[in-house]
Design a protein that fits this description.
Blueprint lengths: L3 H4 L19 H11 L4 H14 L16 H15 L1
């Protein structure tokens, strides 16, 4: 499997841009980072939208990593995940 930058024909493009971070993110950290930067950077916007489309309908509600851990949405997504694991 090719790295995502090659799959999306962004290989080489990123080297011409300043990289905003040089670290790995936990899922919630990544989504928070993308939300923070999406209005000022097209790459962050596209990554955010892609991940939201990919994970936004997991269990017909959304993956818990998309939500703030203190929110009711996170708690509901976590409950649905636990229910699915029990089945």
């Amino acid at each position: 499997m090719l790295p995502w930058r090659e799959q999306c024909t962004l290989d080489g493009f990123m080297e011409k841009r300043n990289k905003c971070c040089n670290r790995e993110f936990e899922p919630r950290e990544l989504m928070a980072h993308l939300i923070e930067k999406k209005n000022s950077c097209a790459l962050h916007l596209v990554a955010h939208d892609y991940l939201w489309i990919l994970y936004g309908n997991v269990r017909k509600y959304g993956h818990k990593a998309l939500f703030n851990p203190n929110s009711s949405q996170y708690k509901r997504a976590e409950a649905l995940e636990k229910k699915e694991a029990e089945e």
